[in-house]
Amino acid sequence: MKDWDDGSNFSQILKRLMDLNKFNIAVPRYTSYPIVPFWKDDHFTIKGYEKSLGNAYWESAKEISLYIHLPFCESLCTYCACNVRITKNHDVELPYIDYLLKEWNLYLDKLPYKPVIKEIHLGGGTPTFFSSDNLDRLLSGILKGYQVAIDPLLSFEGHPSNTTSSHLRILRSFGFNRVSFGIQDFDLNVQKLINRMQSFDQVQAVTKKARALGYESVNFDIVYGLPGQTEKSVRKTLEKVLKLQPERIAYYSYAHVPKLKPAQKSFENHLPNPVEKYGFSHLGKEAFLKAGYHEVGMDHYVLPGDELLIAQKNGELHRNFMGYTPFTSKLLIGLGVSAISDSWSGFAQNEKTIPAYYERLDKNELPILRGHLHTADDLFIRKHILNLMCNFKTTWLPEEFIRFGLNFNYDLLNELQNSGYIQYGKEGLRVDTTGKDVIRIICAALDRDFNKNETKVSFSRSI
């Protein structure tokens, strides 16, 4: 590796990584707290969860968020850690939609009155695996007779290779104004290794189509640390990304968890070393900031005026299973196989296989596989991990610190403080600029279950 932007160079990157290396351990990504492997299933009941749904409905002023998991893909991206089903048989679309609508109606029966739909996100899998007509059928069934908020957040994930003008038009007709394209990398060698093919011309064309149809935000997902990446290839990918000026960029660290996703073993010999990976992370950060983007939360970069940036400045940024949002949702309902719902005081995850998901719905049951109902300790820690992930600071009352801080990892907190990454005490915790690189480690120091190490779980490394 040669010269880095803004005067950085290999020796400085190496020194920085050596400073951080003692914190380069396997930790959760904290899309939730408690994280799924540490849920207390023995304390969870469907009755208790349904009660929490009603409470969250009123606390959110009847507004709800919907995550709809569409799991099908025509081919397996070998880097992917999502719950997907690989098939080229598109006859699976209609039955799956019918079961989604059945699940939605079961949830509606559990809510006191008709909800106001504030947010919808179509994730996967590949939502654009489904035909535009079938997405029309799905959304018509979801929205029929239900009020949409005045300022809704409606978004979907699209594969650049199969997102058509028809997809974009149909979703736009329902009010969708944000699309996230999974780019990952533009280098042909990297794309072959991860089996994720799309050309720059395809991405440019679908981006232009989306903007012409009125999509206000086109977002790119980029991953660093992928097999085959080099400094030169990463630079070229970043140049192409910035040429298209997406409104948001999610610049994710590749999560290597081959025990959970065996397909990742196919390219283990091609992965960059930790020094290179850390260098790639800073190449991206430097390029985005130089191009006028602002850093928001962890891994995200946005252009001036973005809702997320405004929310962060106002202390209103929130993070849930769908990512960062500009408002706090007290009730997130997840529809579809493996989807997770969040009633603020509890979590529930659906069956992870399609046959089991269908079987439960055939019995007119919510297809919940497992869940967790929060304790007072959980809610305290959840609040502060969310604050750190969104704002890089949090405050607590001294009496709360005494009561709930008993299970903090003080050895780790002191080590982080002595290294200049955080400042903490009886009134709160603040992350210094250099500490953003280890934000997951900082959150782990507050995580009671992680510190107890009650179970062996595979996590990706923090750096």
Overall spatial form: globular
Number of strands: 19
The number of distinct helices, counting runs of at least 4 residues, comes to 16
Give the proportion of residues in helices. 25-40%
Question: Biggest sheet, in brief?
Answer: 9 strands, mixed
Order of strands across the biggest sheet? 9-10-8-7-6-5-4-1-13
Averaged pLDDT? 91
Unreliable runs:
1-8
Q: Could you tell me the radius of gyration in angstroms? A: 22 Å
Distance between the termini: 18 Å
Range of strand content = 15-25%
Structural class: alpha/beta
Task: Give a topology summary.
Blueprint (H helix, E strand, L loop, with lengths): L9 H11 L25 H14 L3 E8 L1 E2 L11 E2 L6 H18 L5 E9 L7 H12 L3 E12 L6 H9 L4 E7 L3 H7 L5 H13 L4 E8 L6 H14 L3 E6 L20 H17 L3 E3 L3 E3 L4 H7 L4 E3 L2 E3 L6 E4 L4 E3 L3 E5 L3 H9 L5 E6 L2 H16 L1 E3 L2 H7 L5 H9 L3 E4 L2 E4 L7 H8 L1 H5 L11
Parallel strand pairs: 1-4, 1-13, 2-3, 4-5, 5-6, 6-7, 7-8
Antiparallel strand pairs: 8-10, 9-10, 11-12, 14-15, 15-16, 17-19, 18-19
Helix pairs in contact: 1-9, 3-4, 4-5, 8-9, 12-15
